[in-house]
Amino acid sequence: AQKITQTQPGMFVQEKEAVTLDCTYDTSDQSYGLFWYKQPSSGEMIFLIYQGSYDEQNATEGRYSLNFQKARKSANLVISASQLGDSAMYFCAMREGKTSYDKVIFGPGTSLSVIP
Amino acid sequence: GAGVSQSPRYKVAKRGQDVALRCDPISGHVSLFWYQQALGQGPEFLTYFQNEAQLDKSGLPSDRFFAERPEGSVSTLKIQRTQQEDSAVYLCASSLLGRSGGKYFGPGTRLTVL
Among A56, B4, B5, B9, which residue's beta carbon has the most beta carbons within 10 A? Predict the structure, then answer.
């Protein structure tokens, strides 16, 4: 069964606008972690933001924020003030509580294109 | 630079050949991961090392895949008797020990098996 779902294969956003990338997850663990990564066309995965399941506040990192809705099992990424350099694939990922290291499961990804 | 490096960046192999993919993690990083990323998909976990110990190899798809990290730094992923379905990008990542957050990924090796 798919543990990470990203329902938007492709998204477009106007430069300087905000965009939300959807992610839902499935786990029976109480302790887990959620990640977002960016993968530009160069291929390198870049860590953006992390949310722990027990964190009460939504994570923020600069222009990135994670809209964590635990009851709905959703962890959407919000990018504010989009820039042309934000065009890339974005992957949502989850680490379940069973491992002591970051063994994460990645979603299928969303391709974001920022339009000038 | 001080990031994770991988070599070669591109590898073309004939079906049945053996290949070896190298990963140089960030100095001092205890944890090292290998992922396989098929075209148009998210990366899939292959194996995990903590220093030289391979603590998790549950993601290796078959016994043709073998990984090692003998001195706790450089790691090599070896694929024997390559098949067309092995064509993918192989990503290496390293991090400090623990579950504090994200890893640092290398640029990947794109393997094409003809």
Answer: B4
The tens digit of pLDDT for each residue in A60-76 reads 999 999 999 999 999 99
Contact residues on chain B for A107, CB-CB shorter than 8 A: 42
How many cross-chain Cβ pairs, A to B, lie less than 8 Å apart?
65
Pair type for strands B19-24 and B75-79: antiparallel
- Asked if pLDDT for residue A2 goes beyond 70, the answer is no
Q: Long-range contacts made by residues B98-102, C-beta under 8 angstroms, separation at least 24? A: B98/A101, B99/A33, B99/A95, B99/A100, B99/A101, B99/A102, B100/A50, B101/A35, B101/A47, B101/A50, B101/A102, B102/A35, B102/A37, B102/A47, B102/A48, B102/A50, B102/A102
